[in-house]
Amino acid sequence: MNGKNKKVIAVLFILPFIGFFVCFWLIPFVYGIIMSVSKYSLITGNGGFVGLKNFIQILHSKSMYSKAFWTGLKNTVIFVLLTTPCLVVGSLALALLLDRLPDRLKGIFRTIYFASYAVSVTAVAAIFVWMMKGNGGYLNNLMLNLGIIKKAVPWMEQTPFVWVSLTVATVWWTIGYDMMLFVNALNEIDPQLYEASSIDGANFFHQFRYIIMPGIKNVFFFVLMTTIIASFNVYGQPRLMTKGGPGDSTKPLIMMITSTIMDRNDLGIGSAMTILMGIVIVLCSVGQYYLTREKEELRK
């Protein structure tokens, strides 16, 4: 087989990916940008080019769209700040515990911890609504019977308790995925490094600082970035557990965008909100990249 035939075969292998990428990402992305600078409706269609009017209306006006966008963005940022540290630190802690278990037990506990990730968001929401609803919830009944509390805690009805419910449900649901990434990264570290450091008198904290973290730093930053992006795209948990309530206090930006498009029949404004949300996520990712790069340069 000559070089030309190899190139043709290589192109044939990547053509399906390119086709799916163009159909399901590039075209919707371009079409979304076009809608964001147009007066677009689900019923009447394209009402004409309006330039940056949609973005100005969202960012600088006192309209209901501006209020919805900033409220949704604030709620999304709160969710990111609550869930990301728990998911990253918690999954790393679980991975470290698994790494120190006997080999015959690792597979069992890995399956147990990862099993929750296979559950659908609908089932997760149903489980935690049953457990944490204010009146008659399992958790409240248990604490009342044990005498820990004297009256039911409004886990699903009042802030800040609703944020606790959403955070606990999200961490329980998704922590297994990040844990598996850390487990695989820990498996790549040479065991001889642990043995040599133990001979030199290093304890766990010394090993964590000088062996584990340098060995998994790339995976750590990958998990951190993907967790932030995933948390920015939260929708199912607040939609199914709290319906964005009480009021709009837990309604994330995606719920606001959905409401703008479906309830208010404004695809133009909704698309503009989506573009702005994408810009925020990109800025967070770029900022995280440069912060971590600067830290690495300072260490060198």
Structure report:
With 300 residues, the chain is mostly helical. It has one domain (61-299): MetI-like fold (Orthogonal Bundle). Helices cover 75% and strands 3% of the residues. The chain is built from 12 helices and 2 strands; from the N terminus they run H-E-E-H-H-H-H-H-H-H-H-H-H-H. It has a two-stranded antiparallel ribbon. Strand 1 and strand 2 form a beta hairpin. Helix 3 (64-99) crosses helix 7, helix 7 packs across helix 9 (204-232) and helix 11 packs antiparallel against helix 12. The two termini are 47 Å apart.
Core attributes:
globular; 2 strands; 12 helices; 300 residues; mainly alpha; two-stranded antiparallel ribbon; MetI-like fold
Write the layout of secondary structure elements.
Layout: H1 3-36, E1 38-41, E2 45-49, H2 53-59, H3 64-99, H4 103-115, H5 121-132, H6 138-146, H7 161-187, H8 191-199, H9 204-232, H10 236-241, H11 253-263, H12 267-299
Antiparallel strand pairs: 1-2
Helix pairs in contact: 1-12, 2-12, 3-7, 3-9, 3-11, 4-7, 7-9, 9-12, 11-12
Q: Can you tell me the CATH architecture?
A: Orthogonal Bundle
N/C terminus separation: 47 Å
State the total count of DSSP E strands. 2
Number of helices: 12
Structural class: mainly alpha
- Percent strand equals under 5%
Structural Rg: 24 Å
CATH topology: MetI-like fold
Largest sheet: 2 strands, antiparallel
Low-pLDDT parts are none
The CATH top-level class label:
Mainly Alpha
Strand order of the largest sheet: 1-2
Tell me, briefly, the overall form.
globular
- The name of the CATH superfamily reads MetI-like
What is the residue-mean pLDDT, rounded to a whole number?
88
Residues in helix, %: over 70%
Oligomer: single chain
